[in-house]
Amino acid sequence: MPTPADRSFSEIINARGVFTPLGVSRSPKEVSDAAAEALSRYFVMGELHDAVGQHIADSTGAPAATVVHCVASAITLAVAACITGTNKKLIERLPFTSGLKNRVVLPRPHAVNYGQPIEQAVKLAGAEPVLTGTLTSCSEIDIDEACSRPNTCCLLLVSSRLTTTKAIDFEKAVSAAHRHGVPAIIDGAAQDFRLTELLDTGADAVLISGQKYLGAPTSGLVLGQPDLISAVRAQENGIGRGMKASKEALLGVSAAVELRKHLNVDNWVLEQRAKVSRFVAAANEIENVTAQTRPDPTNLPFERAHLRLVSTSDSINAAKIAGDLRTGSPSIWVMDHLVEQSEIVFELVQLTDGEVNVIIKRLRELMSFA
């Protein structure tokens, strides 16, 4: 029987961030204890959903909240909710939407792929994603015009470093949608530290991942207007049946939200900054490495370490170093989206000092051949 300590599993140091293929994040003991307790008990799931949703709403200042399986499913269910409301017959009819409002306006720069194309999450609800703007820009005018067309059920915006343009003004985009009576949804999967800011845009629903920086079991938080939240809950009697949250996810994410409520974010930010600064200082002592800190492009409250590699060997480059880090033991995973620019990016948020030291040691070893 496989166990977490099973030697057949790869030993991982995750400097890539809250990355789904690596299990996303680590849960604090309070969260894992809450999830474990849930597994040993029975609940009336409707009561549990009500209690957890109310706790999340009270803790975050959202008008209402509910929990689904993950943010990918939250996109599908929020779109479905905009199409059907709580109408039982329409809910059972999905994903067949002929004759219903089923156009989802999506800025073209927000047509991201996070392991699946976001358009597919929309289509699973029976909706039609309609891209507006260009790959590098999408204006308030673009959004206004797209939302003015018949049969538009919602506007979908994405807050992520994966987007391909400068940030869209979400408050103006939401207002443009509302001028036409169109609800607005924000996919803010990894943006839990910015939840208040996203809710303050006036969006009808904000979608947040439970298992990323909150460190909860796999779950998606849907926060926003009560009518839309009720319509999301109602989808469990339709296409949402296979996207429901489990009892351990519900109590785990509730515990994670409670921990976040009491977190001294200012102190946490200072701790993260000090960790990255120590890493950068140590990396700068390695020959042929130049390291610096850079802020998160979506304004999350921490920095990452960017290492630029300079080598006198044609066989040593950023892509090779990133690959060698991954294939070693332990396997060190990094952000490799800038390797063509000779940069490797390290996110250290969930790493211990010991793991950071292992990374520095491996870098020294690998760069000694440069």
Work out the number of β strands.
Answer: 12
Q: Which H/E pattern describes the elements?
A: EHHEHHEHEHEHEHEEHHHEEHEEH
* Overall number of structural domains: 2
Which shape, going by the Cα principal axes?
A: globular
**Gyration radius from CA atoms, angstroms:** 22 Å
CATH C-level label of the largest domain = Alpha Beta
Give the class from helix and strand content and strand pairing.
alpha/beta
Strand content: 15-25%
Strand order of the largest sheet: 2-8-7-6-5-3-4
CATH level-four homologous superfamily name of the largest domain: Type I PLP-dependent aspartate aminotransferase-like (Major domain)
Low-confidence stretches: none
CATH architecture of the largest domain: 3-Layer(aba) Sandwich
Average pLDDT metric: 94
- Helical content, roughly? 25-40%
CATH topology group of the largest domain: Aspartate Aminotransferase, domain 2
What is the first-to-last residue Cα distance? 43 Å
**Major beta-sheet overview:** 7 strands, mixed
Describe this structure in words.
The protein is α/β, with parallel strands linked by helices. The chain folds into two domains: 28-261, Aspartate Aminotransferase, domain 2; 264-367, Alpha-Beta Complex (Aspartate Aminotransferase, domain 1). The protein is built from 13 helices and twelve strands. The protein has helices spanning 29-39, 45-60, 71-84, 88-93, 118-123, 140-147, 170-178, 195-199, 226-234, 247-261, 265-283, 318-327, 353-367; strands at residues 12-15, 64-68, 103-107, 128-132, 152-158, 184-187, 205-209, 220-224, 289-295, 303-309, 331-334, 343-346. The chain has a seven-stranded mixed beta sheet, sandwiched between helices. Strands 9-10-12 form a three-stranded antiparallel beta sheet. A two-stranded parallel ribbon has the order 1-11. A hairpin with a 7-residue loop joins strand 9 and strand 10 (303-309). Helix 1 runs antiparallel to helix 10 (247-261), helix 3 crosses helix 9 (226-234) and helix 6 (140-147) packs parallel to helix 7. The longest helix has 19 residues, at 265-283.
